[in-house]
Amino acid sequence: MVFSLFKKKKDSQPLKNRIEFCITNLSLGAADAYDVLLEREDIEMEESGCTSHCEICEQGIFAIVNGEIVTADDAEALVQAIDEEIKQNPLF
Prior knowledge:
alpha+beta
């Protein structure tokens, strides 16, 4: 049997923007933004126990969009900031 590391997958999935939320920050108000973004197909959501950004978490709500930290004062503003980050720095 021949195994290739370079074999193409037949069903390739389109790349999605990755958004990571801290579980603690979700409980502090980011959950409303999470619920809105969960419905979108262009985004892959992830929840982490801790993202090691405690100083940012204490100050307000935030998300990590494709590796970049995005902050806001409320959930609506966070969704807008995430959309802006995706427009400025798309994954694809």
